[in-house]
Write a structure and sequence with these properties.
Length: about 170
């Protein structure tokens, strides 16, 4: 098992973050030019390995996962009346747990645990641990975690803007 500590930095126009190993060395980093480019680039030791491409749809969100210049799958929001549901397409992974509070597990089609994510509370930006049990798929799992984190940020931003606009009526 490998454990990474995810820490997102707070910036006005863009977001970026890092995943540190147990020796507090940066292994992964990501950059997101949110205003100009709906894409989050993922780097491993400063070399780009993939990106998450946000797709704009009417109500539902989709995040295409591109790994080593090849689209390998997507994270999709499924329509639901009570709460948004997510499903992973193309990778053979499932997500179970509460991804809104960043306490969830990623499993393969047979239910075998591949990764676990647990958020740390009381930070201004997301801070959480990512435990990777399937080291063979480590980079894909990290890419999926970045996509879920972005989904959560987009959902929170939409909820905040909706609450702000309803307060002005």
């Amino acid at each position: 098992m490998k454990r990474f500590y995810f820490k997102e930095n707070l910036h006005f126009l863009y977001a970026n973050g890092q995943l540190f190993d147990e020796n507090e060395e940066i292994v992964y980093s990501y950059e997101n030019q949110t205003l100009f480019l709906p894409q989050i680039d993922l780097y491993k030791y400063n070399e780009k390995i993939g990106h998450v491409q946000k797709q704009f749809q009417f109500f539902l969100r989709r995040y295409d996962l591109v790994y080593k210049d090849e689209e390998v799958g997507s994270l999709n929001q499924e329509f639901s009346f009570f709460k948004p549901e997510l499903y992973v397409e193309g990778l053979g992974f499932t997500v179970r747990g509460d991804f809104f509070s960043l306490h969830y597990e990623i499993c393969d089609e047979d239910g075998v645990l591949l990764a676990r994510v647990d958020q740390e509370l009381f930070h201004l930006t997301p801070h959480y641990y990512v435990d990777i049990y399937d080291e063979e798929n480590e980079e894909l799992l990290v890419l999926l975690v970045i996509a879920i984190n972005q989904f959560d940020k987009d959902r929170s931003a939409a909820a905040s803007s909706g609450a702000a606009s309803s307060n002005h009526n």
